Amino acid sequence: MLLTILIGSVLLLLCLILVFKINALFALIITSITAGLLQGMAGTAVVKSIEEGIGSTLGQLSLILAMGAVLGKLLANGGAAQQITTYMVRFFGVKNLQWAMVVTGLLVGIPLFYNVGFVVLVPFVFMICASTGLSVLYVAIPLLTALSVTHGYLPPHPGATAIAILYKADIGKTMMYGGLICIPAIVIGGPLFSRTLKGIKPNPPKGLFNLEFRPENELPGFGVSLITSLLPVFLIGLATVSQAVLEKGSFAGSFIAFIGHPVIALLISTFFAIYTMGIRQGQKMKDLMEQAEEALKSITMLLFIIGAAGAFKQVLVDGGIGDYISKMALALPFSPLLLVWFIAAAIRVALGSATVAGLTTAGIAIPIMQSTHVSPELMVLATGAGSLMFSHLNDPGFWMFKEYFGLSIRDTIRSWSLMETIVSVVGLIGVLILNIFI
User: Alpha-carbon distance 84 to 416, whole Å?
Assistant: First the structure.
């Protein structure tokens, strides 16, 4: 009966979003209420579970999302993204331009939301192709592969961080494992796969890009752009390394653990960016705070959707489905890592949203992880990999790619959708291989 309720709840969620076109926030809340009542919970208990789920999820995540959004906005407006791209192209040269795009996507994609990174960097692709004569997709696919993988695999990107918090995974370890997994995923899905797309001819709409390219003498230096972009990664990674090197309870260890906490690391990085990307360039604090407000407004709906996903998770746990799933998982003949990848992939294909797929899967799979003692860090990566599976017509990213590059639906599936599938499958394979040694 409980399994039927779970399946029915997921189908209801899909139906509300796909058939009735209800926003994911409301669909998740309606599904949470329905699932709770069907499990026999009292109405007040359902509401309490929803409140607890929203509060516990956003309580841990809201500041991380807020600081990440502001940092991304400052990096984009301050010229760091343009400087990093320009330098990488110059450093690698035309012959190795694809690798320049991969590195740029990684460096810029870690602190930026995917959509922001896409809008900021794609105009540079056309600028580069116009000056070099290279195929647009030959240059763009490696860049967008790196952006996509950081979105799914690598904290401190908000999507991966949210999943890590739900699983109570060590974010530093997740970054290290994800760094290993992302390399083959990006190489295969980016530079190698893009070479099979020579027959596709993009036709981007004229006048689509209104991004003003700043003169080089007005850009921040490459060094400061790189440091500002990667500072949160450095601080979080430093905290992870210090746990293994420094004595537990020592002043140095406690201090590094404090500044390496994701919230504090992003807070420090945000204020550092306010100086390097703003004040140092002559901007007034008032203007910088307006940029921060714009960034915060842009994540309002995302915050609520994440909170609603947490509510759905809590109702499943409090109603007993969580315990039921955990007992079933113990009897499964295959790894829970494979299970969560399949769940996330199914939700991704059905809903289109990688964020919703990842967070919904985490809510369902928490009891599985707790009962099987699998690495929570690998669960994050398996879930993130599944959440990238086969983007198609119900994914806004699909349409962004299609319209920006002026492709047919068939060619968008051949390029974008297959690229997303490759990074998802390669990510899963990487997780399963790492699981042998961890």
Answer: 24
Q: What is the pLDDT of residue 212?
A: 59
- Exposure string over 166-198, b if 16+ CB within 10 A, otherwise e: bbebbbbbbbebbeebbebbbbbbbbbbbeebe
Residue with token string 């769940």: 343
Q: What is the pLDDT of residues 135-169, one digit of tens each?
A: 999 999 999 999 999 888 888 777 788 889 889 99
Question: So what's the pLDDT on residue 213?
Answer: 67
pLDDT value of position 332: 67
Residue 132 has pLDDT above 50, yes or no: yes
Contact present, 42 and 238 (Cβ < 8 Å)? no
CB atoms under 10 Å from CB of 231, counted, come to: 20
Q: Do residues 356 and 398 lie in contact, with contact meaning Cβ atoms separated by under 8 Å?
A: no
Count the domains in the chain.
Answer: 1
**Distance of alpha carbon 221 from alpha carbon 431, whole angstroms:** 37
The span from the CA of 438 to the CA of 435, in Å, is 5
Secondary structure element (H or E) that encloses residue 105, with its range: helix 97-109
Amino acid at 198: K
Q: What is the band of 210 on the pLDDT scale with cuts at 50, 70, 90?
A: very low
How many Cβ atoms are within 10 Å of 201's Cβ, its own excluded?
13
Backbone angles phi, psi at 79, to 5 degrees: 95, 5
Closest CA to 85 of 44, 35, 142, 4: 142
Expressed as residue numbers, the domain containing 286 is: 2-437
pTM recorded for the entire structure: 0.75
